[in-house]
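Repro case for the chain-ordering regression, as requested:
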Amino acid sequence: MKKSLIPPNIQILIYPSIILTALAILSFVVINFGLAQISKQSQAVSEAKVNEKILAEKEATLTEVSATVAKEAASVSLALPEENPALAILSQLKLLALSKTIVLSNIKVGVGSQEENLLRVNISFNANGQDINVLDFLSSIKNISPITTIEKIKMSQVSGVLSADTNVRGYWSLLPKTLPKVTEPVTNLSEPERNLLEKVMALTPPSFTQVTPSAPSIRDNPF
Amino acid sequence: MAINLIPEEIAPKGPAARLSSFLRTVSAIGLTLFILVVFGLTSYYLVNFFSLRTSQTKQDNLKKVISSLESTETSLILLRDRLSKVKEVFAIESADRNVEAVSGVFAQVPPGVSISDFETTLKKIGISVNAQDSLSLGQFMTTLLSADRFGTVNLKAFSFNPASGYAATFELFLK
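-- result from build under test --
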C-alpha cells in the first residue's frame, strides 16, 4: 500500500479548511457585491418614489387649474404684455377720455427703456375738459389694462376748463423662454399671487376688433 | 452503517480529529447561513426590482398625462411669470394716490377760491390758488389741514393784490 507523504492528522484538516476558506471568500465577495447592488437599487427606488409623488402632484395641480389658467394667463398678459404696449395704452386712454367727455391732445410716445426685468415707455398728453371730468379721467387711468402709472401731472385752470399736462408710463416684459423639466414640481398659485391676480383681472382690458376671414370668392375678369 | 476502511493504526486520532470535525460543522453552518443570506439578498433585490418597475410604469403614465396638459403648464408658468413682474410694477412709486388726494381737494374748494395751477410728481403735490378774500382762503386752508391724506402741508408762497385778491401756493406731502 502506497503511503501518503502527508500525515493523516494533517490530511483530515485540509479539506474542511479549504471549504471554510472558500466559503469565507465567497461570502465576502457575494455579500459585498449584493449589498452594493441593493443599496444602489434602494436609492433608485426612493428616487423613483419621490419623482412619482412629484409627478402625481403636478398632474393633480395641472388638472385642477386647466379650466381657468389659460383665461387668467391671457388677462395678465394683456396687463403686462411681451411687447411695447404704447398703442394699446393710447387706445385705452382715448376710450377713457371719450367716456369722460374730455379731449386728449399733444400725444407723444417716448422711446422704450429697460430697468432690470421690466421695459418701460413714457407717454405724454394733454387732457382738457371740465375739472371734475379731467380728475375722474386721471383717477381712472390706474384701472386700465395694460398697466399704466402716472408719473407727473401739471394742471392749470382757466375759466372752469382744466388742462392737465400728463406723463404716464406703460410697462412690458419679455416672456420666459424655457419650460422646466417634466419632473420639476409645479404648484398652484399662492394666496398673495391669487390676490394679485384678482387685482389684475379687475382692470379694464383693451377692446380688440377681430376681423373674421372672408370666404373665397370668384374674381371678376378685369378684361 | 458506514464502513471505515482506514487501518486502525493510521486513522487520525485526538485533537486533529476533533478539529476536523469542528471545521466540518462550522463549514456546514456557514454554508447554510450563506445560502440563507444569498436567498435574503436575492428576495430583497427582487422586491425592489419590481417596486422600481411599478414606479417607473406609473411615472411613464403620469408623464403622458402631463404631456397632454402641456398647454396648461405653459399657461401656468406664463401666469406666474407675469404675476411676479406685475408685482414689481405695482411696487413702483406712482402719482396715482396724489391724483385721488387732489380730487378730494377739488371737490371741497370753497366759494371764492379757484385753483389756478396744480402739479403732482411721485413725491409731492403743488397747488396754487387764488382767493377773493381772506375768509375763503382760510376755509380752503382748513380743508387742506383737516384732510387725513396729507402728512405735511407747506405754504410756499403768499401774496396779496388789491385787484385780484390773495394768491397762495401750497406744497402737500401724502402720509
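Ordering looks correct now. Chain A has a mean pLDDT of 88.
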